[in-house]
């Protein structure tokens, strides 16, 4: 499932009890994963009651 909010794309993957959310910034209709001051990629992994942010 993909949802667009301004220039951001949120992707969700559901796997039994865990959920991974990836944020990607889209530029010119191509998703590029970048990690700097203005563009960051955040990955969150949920497992029961624990959350890991990378």
TrEMBL record:
<feature type="compositionally biased region" description="Polar residues">
    <location>
        <begin position="40"/>
        <end position="54"/>
    </location>
</feature>
<feature type="compositionally biased region" description="Basic and acidic residues">
    <location>
        <begin position="1"/>
        <end position="15"/>
    </location>
</feature>
<protein>
    <submittedName>
        <fullName>Uncharacterized protein</fullName>
    </submittedName>
</protein>
<feature type="region of interest" description="Disordered">
    <location>
        <begin position="1"/>
        <end position="54"/>
    </location>
</feature>
């Amino acid at each position: 499932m993909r949802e667009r909010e301004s220039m951001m794309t949120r992707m969700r993957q559901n796997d039994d009890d865990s959920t991974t959310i990836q944020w990607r910034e889209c530029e010119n209709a191509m998703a590029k994963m970048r990690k700097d001051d203005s563009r960051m990629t955040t990955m969150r992994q949920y497992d029961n009651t624990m959350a890991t942010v990378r």
